[in-house]
Amino acid sequence: xxxxxxxxxLGVADxxxxxxxxEKGLGWKRSEKSTGEMIAFDMPGITLALFPIKELxxxxxxxxxxxxxxxxxxxxxxxxxxxVAEIMARVETLEGTIVKPPQKASWGGYSGYFADPDGYxxxxxxxxFWKL
Length: 132
What we know:
Number of strands: 7
Low-confidence stretches: none
Radius of gyration: 15 Å
Strand order of the largest sheet: 4-7-6-5
Order of helices and strands: EHEEHEHEEE
Number of helices: 3
Shape: globular
């Protein structure tokens, strides 16, 4: 198997609420790959998709059992500490939840965490050692 991930699908409880959060709130642009039930957002090298959680669980053939922390975070790296603060401030006005406010990180950068309306955890980070 090649070392590559091309699609991450988030199972969501309310597709319309999630569309509002990502499109209207964060300003993401919907991909032409989107269908009625699957909303896709193309990014460099990967696509993030939203899909109804019940249908996704059925497709996987396991029951959906929500937890507070799945052990996965999704990171969005920025070009500056100011950009981290701007994004986190925008999330506060949406249906997202600030999990950890932006702050200096032990590894030398600046980051914070938020949860989207379905509880998926995103890190917003500036890493001065990692050029985008």
